[in-house]
């Protein structure tokens, strides 16, 4: 791991963590927090989740609940006041979230010691009443053993159909693409099948998620109606192999971008990230699917 790059990631993430700690009573949008870290919202969300083990929304919600627990223990707040301070509209919804996290309702929690929080959730960032925190350190976390290679990827000309909606509903885009490409003889044995997942489903509303179903084509092929032409690749990429169902891809993205990337000495590039499908989902059991994930590097 290159120390300078590691420190670069930690400094940027600590800036976000300190901002969250200092502004728990404020609305904190993803765009604002990503800007503090100098990442795009999608990259920030995945890097944060990989580093912290939770999404930024879950992190803020948990820190607010920890503050509420401290105020209850210290007698500073009633359950009603703690609920509103934690951002819940009703005491009932606050109580449900509180019990799920701490194992008992707020009314019973006063009997427990504050340090039980740290025993229950070891190794992660917690709310500190004095406002101080220990800096985030990657060496406190197990280094990822993910197998990643870096390679120069040739630019690929692809025909594509865009799907707007959840990633698990992109089958229609593939059907349209194959129905168009098949009669033209474009589904050759040497054709490569790619997916460009533009958005993070934990950030973008389901109906706004963009996914391009792509097949490589030569320079003689032109677009036609819903069929577009674009270039994918061209530059340095980090590549890791995802084994298993497509619905688990996001977990691999989070480990690659929030685990491997900060340890690697590499930085995110500006080219499109994409997925290369190595076997046919129509004839392959989900557990045996193989997908190479390509992340652009500077």
How is the secondary structure organized here?
Blueprint: H1 3-22, H2 30-37, H3 41-52, H4 56-74, H5 79-85, H6 91-102, H7 106-109, H8 116-120, E1 148-153, E2 156-164, H9 171-181, E3 193-197, E4 210-216, E5 228-232, E6 235-243, H10 249-264, E7 274-277, E8 290-296
Antiparallel strand pairs: 1-6, 2-4, 2-5, 3-4, 3-7, 6-8, 7-8
Helix pairs in contact: 1-2, 2-3, 3-10, 4-5, 5-6
Total DSSP helices: 10
Order of neighbouring strands in the sheet with most strands:
1-6-8-7-3-4-2-5
> At the third CATH level, what is the topology name of the largest domain?
Multidrug-efflux Transporter 1 Regulator Bmrr, Chain A
Q: What top-tier CATH class of the largest domain fits best?
A: Alpha Beta
Q: What is the CATH superfamily classification of the largest domain?
A: Regulatory factor, effector binding domain
Give the rounded overall mean pLDDT.
Answer: 82
Shape: elongated
Domains, number: 2
Q: Examine the secondary-structure arrangement and name the CATH architecture of the largest domain.
A: Alpha-Beta Barrel
Distance between the termini: 17 Å
Main β sheet profile = 8 strands, antiparallel
Regions with pLDDT < 50 over 5+ consecutive residues?
none
* Coarse structural class: alpha+beta
The helix content is 25-40%
**Number of DSSP strand runs:** 8
Cα Rg: 23 Å
Question: Approximately what portion of the residues adopt beta-strand conformation?
Answer: 15-25%
Run of helices and strands: HHHHHHHHEEHEEEEHEE
Q: Oligomer, anyone?
A: single chain
């Amino acid at each position: 791991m290159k120390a300078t790059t590691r420190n670069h990631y930690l400094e940027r993430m600590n800036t976000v963590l300190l901002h969250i700690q200092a502004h728990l009573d404020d609305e904190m949008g993803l765009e604002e927090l990503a800007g503090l870290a100098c990442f795009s919202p999608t990259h920030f969300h995945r890097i944060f989740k990989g580093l912290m083990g939770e999404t930024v929304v879950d992190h803020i919600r948990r820190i607010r609940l920890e503050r509420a627990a401290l105020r209850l223990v210290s007698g500073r707040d009633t359950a009603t006041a703690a609920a509103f301070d934690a951002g819940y509209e009703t005491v009932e919804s606050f109580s449900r979230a509180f019990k799920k996290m701490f194992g008992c309702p707020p009314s019973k929690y006063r009997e427990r010691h504050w340090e039980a929080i740290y025993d229950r959730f070891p190794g992660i960032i917690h709310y500190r009443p004095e406002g101080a925190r220990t800096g985030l350190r990657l060496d406190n976390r197990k280094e990822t053993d993910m197998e990643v290679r870096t390679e120069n990827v040739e630019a690929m000309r692809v025909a594509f159909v865009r799907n707007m909606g959840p990633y698990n509903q992109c089958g229609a885009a593939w059907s349209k693409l194959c129905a168009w490409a098949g009669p033209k003889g474009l589904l050759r044995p040497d054709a490569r099948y790619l997916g460009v997942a533009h958005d993070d489903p934990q950030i973008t509303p389901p109906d706004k998620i963009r996914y391009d179903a792509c097949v490589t084509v030569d320079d003689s092929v032109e677009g036609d109606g819903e069929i577009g032409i674009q270039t994918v690749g061209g530059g340095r990429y980090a590549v890791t192999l995802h084994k298993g169902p497509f619905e688990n891809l996001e977990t691999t993205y989070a480990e690659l971008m929030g685990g491997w990337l900060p340890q690697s000495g590499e930085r995110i590039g500006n080219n499109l990230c994409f997925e290369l499908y190595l076997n046919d989902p129509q004839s392959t059991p989900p557990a045996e699917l193989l997908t190479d994930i390509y992340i652009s590097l500077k």
